[in-house]
Design brief:
Blueprint: H1 2-22, E1 25-27, E2 39-47, E3 50-58, E4 67-72, E5 75-76, E6 79-80, E7 83-88, E8 92-94, E9 97-102, E10 105-114, E11 117-126, E12 129-137
Antiparallel strand pairs: 1-10, 2-3, 2-12, 3-4, 4-7, 5-6, 8-9, 9-10, 10-11, 11-12
């Protein structure tokens, strides 16, 4: 009996999560909606080893966007520790996405909106690692 109840609750949680995700739609980023990007974002970058906390602060709403990424739990000397802040001043729109390239770091995120919430998600290459990133507007 407990297995059936647990299974039912698990399925319900999955369905609610999918419904919430389905409510968000991808919005092309253009100069007309850069004000949506301005502000603080927080979430995760996902690598083979798991999810690592990440923050983004965008300071303005005109091109080029300026701000910084804060990468928590950066791998140093073979273990996860420390924080790395990467400022940017020359971001741009690429294929309707927010795009930052600085040195060997490259980040491309698309904007998703729904139910009064906003999310940036996409791919990144940072410190020799490729992964995905998902950030929610605070």
């Amino acid at each position: 009996m407990k297995k059936i109840v647990f299974g039912g609750v698990f399925i319900l949680i999955i369905l609610v999560g999918l419904a919430g995700y389905a409510a968000m739609t991808k919005e092309p980023i253009s100069e007309s909606n850069l004000s949506d990007l301005k502000g603080k974002w927080e979430g995760w970058r996902t690598l083979t080893g798991g999810n690592l906390r990440t923050e983004l602060e965008i300071d303005n709403d005109t091109l080029p966007l300026k701000g910084k990424f804060i990468f928590h739990d950066v791998k140093r000397h073979g273990k996860m520790s420390g924080t790395n802040t990467m400022g940017f001043e020359k971001s741009r729109i690429k294929d309707n996405n927010f795009y930052v390239k600085k040195g060997e770091t490259e980040i491309e995120l698309s904007l998703h909106k729904g139910d009064g919430k906003m999310k940036l998600e996409g791919d990144f290459y940072f410190a020799g690692n490729r992964g995905t990133m998902e950030l929610n507007k605070k």
